C-alpha cells in the first residue's frame, strides 16, 4: 500500500497509509482536546506545524503538505503532488497573516472534509499565532533598532556558535571589527538625523559586501562587526575592499566623506570569543591610529 512520510513529525506515527481514507469519521471532542494539548506543548512554530500535519493526514486524503510564510517554504508532509492542490491562507479574526498551507490531495475534498479542515485550522490558528509572535519578539530582541542588522546580544550569541562550529569542523572563521572615521564630526556638522542615515546606509552596504552565509552586526554607536564563516585568510581584505568600493559608489555617503577603519582576527584552535575579539579590536585600534 502506498504510504506518505511526515517530515520530522512530532505527533502521530511517521508513516500513514493513504488507503485508510476510504471513509470519514468526525473528529471528536476528546480528539480536539488532544490536538490542542499536542499543539500547545510545542515550543516553536515548525514543531507545532509538524505536529498538526501528523493529525491532518489521519483525517483527510492528504499526500503532501507545505507551509509558506515570509518567503520561506517548509515541507511538512513529503509525498507526491497529488491530483489536486488546495491553498489555504492562515489568518485569525483580526486578519493577522500567519502564512499559508498548500495541501496536495489524492482526491477532491467532500463537504464534510471542508468542515473538518476548517475545524482543524481553528484549533491550529491561536497556538501558531502565539509561537510566531514569540519568535518575532525574539528576533526583534536580537536586532539593532536603527539599522535592522544584528545587535550586540545577537553578536555575542552568533560568535559563540561560530566558534563552537569551528571547534567541531574548522573551515575558517574571521571576525572583522569596523569603526566609522570622524563620525562625531558628521553628527556635529550635519546633525543626528543625518548621522542616523549614515549608520543605516553603512549597515546596508556592509550587508551587501558579505555573503548570505556571513553575518553583520552593529555593536553600538558607529561600531560594527562582521562574522565570515567559512573564510580563508584573505577574506577580510576582500570584504573591506568591496565595502570601500560600495562607499565610493554611494553618492550620499561619499558626499559626507564617510570612511571606516577595520581590524580583523582569524580564529585558531584554543581561542575563545574574548581572545578573538580582543585580537581584532587591537588591530582596529592600531589601524585607526595610523595617519592616512
UniProtKB/TrEMBL annotation:
Its EC number is 2.7.7.65. Residues 171-292 form the GGDEF domain. It is an enzyme of class 2 (transferase). PANTHER family: DIGUANYLATE CYCLASE DGCN (PTHR45138:SF6), REGULATORY COMPONENTS OF SENSORY TRANSDUCTION SYSTEM (PTHR45138). NCBIfam families: GGDEF. This is diguanylate cyclase. It comes from Pseudaeromonas paramecii.
Amino acid at each position: 500500500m502506498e504510504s506518505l512520510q511526515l517530515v520530522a513529525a512530532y505527533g502521530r506515527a511517521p508513516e500513514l497509509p493513504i488507503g485508510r481514507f476510504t471513509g470519514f469519521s468526525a473528529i471528536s471532542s476528546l480528539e480536539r482536546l488532544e490536538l490542542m494539548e499536542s499543539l500547545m506543548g510545542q515550543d516553536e512554530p515548525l514543531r507545532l506545524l509538524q505536529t498538526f500535519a501528523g493529525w491532518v493526514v489521519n483525517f483527510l486524503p492528504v499526500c503532501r503538505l507545505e507551509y509558506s510564510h515570509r518567503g520561506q517554504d517548509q515541507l511538512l508532509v513529503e509525498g507526491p503532488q497529488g491530483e489536486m492542490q488546495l491553498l489555504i491562507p492562515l489568518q485569525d479574526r483580526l486578519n493577522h497573516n500567519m502564512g499559508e498551507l498548500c495541501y496536495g490531495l489524492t482526491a477532491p475534498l467532500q463537504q464534510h472534509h471542508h468542515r473538518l479542515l476548517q475545524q482543524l485550522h481553528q484549533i491550529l490558528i491561536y497556538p501558531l499565532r502565539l509561537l510566531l509572535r514569540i519568535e518575532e519578539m525574539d528576533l526583534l530582541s536580537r536586532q539593532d533598532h536603527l539599522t535592522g542588522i544584528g545587535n550586540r546580544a545577537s553578536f555575542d550569541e552568533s560568535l559563540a556558535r561560530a566558534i563552537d562550529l569551528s571547534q567541531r569542523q574548522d573551515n575558517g572563521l574571521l571576525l572583522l571589527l569596523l569603526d566609522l572615521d570622524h563620525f562625531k564630526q558628521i553628527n556635529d556638522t550635519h546633525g543626528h538625523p543625518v548621522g542616523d542615515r549614515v549608520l543605516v546606509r553603512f549597515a546596508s552596504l556592509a550587508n551587501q559586501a558579505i555573503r548570505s552565509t556571513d553575518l553583520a552586526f552593529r555593536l553600538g554607536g558607529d561600531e560594527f562587526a562582521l562574522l565570515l564563516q567559512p573564510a580563508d585568510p584573505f577574506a577580510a581584505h576582500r570584504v573591506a575592499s568591496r565595502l570601500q568600493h560600495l562607499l565610493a559608489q554611494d553618492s550620499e555617503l561619499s558626499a559626507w566623506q564617510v570612511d571606516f577603519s577595520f581590524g580583523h582576527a582569524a580564529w585558531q584552535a584554543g581561542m575563545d570569543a574574548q581572545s578573538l575579539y580582543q585580537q581584532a579590536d587591537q588591530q582596529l585600534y592600531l589601524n585607526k591610529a595610523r595617519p592616512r
